[in-house]
Amino acid sequence: MLNIHENLSQKLQIAPGSLYRSLVRWAELQPAASCLVEVESGRTLTYRQMLVAVNAMRLFLGDVPQTLVLSLPGGMINAVIWISALSGGHRLVPISPTASEHEKRRVVDTYQPDVLFVEQREDACHFSLLETTVIVTLHTCEALIDPVASSIVGCSLMQREGHVCLTTSGTTGEPKGVVLRERQLAWTAEQVRRSHGLTTQDRGLTVLPFFHVNAPVVSLCSSILAGSAVVIARHFSRSQFWSWVERYQVTWASLVPTIVAMLLSTEQPDFLPGTLRFVRTGSAPLPASDLRAFEARFGIPVIETYGLSEAASQVVANPVPPGKHKAGSAGLPVGVQLRICVPRQNGEDALTDVIPGEIGEICIAGPAVITAYQNNAGQDSFQHGWFRSGDLGYLDADGYLFITGRLREVINRGGENIAPREIEEVLLQHPAVQEAAVVGRPDPLYGEQVVAYIVVREEWNEGVKQSLLAHARRYLSAYKVPIDFMSLDALPRNATGKVERKLLQDRERQS
Predict the structure, then answer these.
(1) For the domain with range 8-401, which CATH number is right: 3.40.250.10, 1.20.58.340, 3.90.550.10, 3.40.50.12780?
(2) Taking 90 as the threshold, does the pLDDT of residue 71 lie above it?
(3) What is the SS3 assignment for 367?
(4) The CATH number of 411-510 is which of 3.30.300.30, 1.10.600.10, 3.40.50.11810, 3.40.50.2300?
(5) Contact by Cβ (8 Å): 123, 218
(6) Which pLDDT tens digit goes with each residue over 3-26?
(7) What is the pTM for the complete model shown?
(8) Residue ranges of the AMP-binding enzyme C-terminal domain (predicted)?
(9) CB of 392 within 8 A of CB of 343?
């Protein structure tokens, strides 16, 4: 097991400013090498131009630390803002542009942003902003970082460590704030670089959003540390994916299991394997059958990983060829200490390892792992320097982690972690709802879909159902809206009055 607390050579990798210093270094060593490529526009920023763009954004934002809410669609501007915020001492709060008005107002109430990045100025009206908030549009950002028009010199600016604020469902299924410093993000990015063997010759494709931790850390930050290029797509496209790989000479791609399943319905391109040496998956368990089918059809290794927002993304990863990757396994611990413990019972907080090979709760510790949620929520997840993930699994004789399920109530829909409590609170605001419990329904494409069990105050009919659906769509992002509403006379409860969510989950699995 890696002793991360005593390994001095790796400790040096988490000094504040690692990301910006790497950008400066590669801008000096290979100024004309590609850093960012945007597939829809075909635009490229070289390392020299990327440094100029980051410096221009930092000078625009100023030296005083500010709170930045990032609500832009995918694209290279997101990458510039992430690195600018993390190196300029700012607090970055990413949020999906398609988030509901309710979610956007909550972000404003919680963080009171100084700057809001939106695609068009009218998009800001959904945020109920403070009078002092500066609105910056995508057009303004594009003009600011234009390498032709910019007069900014590509020299090194003073480093101020910034941080990012994310929302996760945590181990209990309730939304919780995760604050990650630049050094934590850089630590995990360095582990990605090492585990995937990234070099200056690599070109990584990401089709994932920048309002989650995966794309910024796994694709962007690891590539900057490696001096390689990031090919950024605003959205995944099943019809264009393979043409992107060929056109931009992609050597690896970061995906989620749902995308792997979608690609299985495409024809094998003639150019494969070409430059593509592997694809990696994260955010949700990948069915072993899909891994084998993908490798058999396309001849490309699939590297499964396991990550957590609480650890700045990647925690465990399968080795890339010629190393051994195992179907059904999330891989080996990378940059963390990991143990399998007896799950918590009745509030018991003792950390006791299970017998080797037995299933237990996955617990981790390391430089990138947070020690608390915002406002000290969910403190029972942090015990004696270890984070209890709420996920269940076991280690085989070779030390590979196999994930078998989870204790936590979170619903994983296509890699999107959804907190049941958040949806339940929205449903309970509807006048017809007396009680609500939300669980996941197994789905062959997305892994799970959201289903709501409710007790109504009046007669259940199609009109009430449609009213609930409209209510949910008003207050929730589209992927959080239940696909089905099930009416019950009463929710199942245990002796202490707590909802027996497991009974509802079992009902969904058996249906």
Answers:
(1) 3.40.50.12780
(2) yes
(3) coil
(4) 3.30.300.30
(5) no
(6) 433 343 344 346 778 999 999 999
(7) 0.83
(8) 422-498
(9) yes
Measured from the Cβ of residue 465, the count of other Cβ atoms closer than 10 Å reads 17
Angle at 182 between CA 192 and CA 101, to 5 degrees: 100
Structure tokens at 127: 């945020």
- In whole angstroms, what is the distance from residue 144 CA to residue 138 CA? 10
- Element containing residue 434 per DSSP (H, E): strand 433-443
Q: Tokens 């080795």, residue?
A: 319
Which amino acid appears at position 356 of this protein?
P
The pair of structure tokens assigned to 490 is 């009463």
DSSP β-bridge partners for residue 413 = 416
What are the domain boundaries of the chain?
A: 8-401, 411-510
Give me 13's structure tokens: 């990798």
66: CB partners within 8 A, 6+ apart: 90, 91, 114, 115
Close Cβ partners of 456 (under 8 Å, ≥ 6 residues apart): 432, 433, 434, 464, 487
Task: Answer for the pair 400, 326: CB distance below 8 angstroms, yes or no.
Answer: yes
Residue-wise pLDDT tens digits, 448-466? 999 999 999 889 999 999 9
For residue 327, the 8-state DSSP code is: T
What is the largest distance, in Å, between two alpha-carbon atoms of the chain? Answer: 71
| pLDDT at residue 281 greater than cutoff 70 | yes
Written in H, E and C, the secondary structure of 199-213 is CCCCEEEECCCCCCC
CA distance 492 to 422: 20
User: What single letter denotes the amino acid at residue 407?
Assistant: L
Q: In 3D, which of 364, 382, 383 has the Cα closest to residue 374?
A: 382
277 half-sphere exposure, CB direction, 13 A CA radius: 14
Q: Which two tokens stand for residue 75?
A: 């694209």
Alpha-carbon span 303 to 87, nearest angstrom: 31
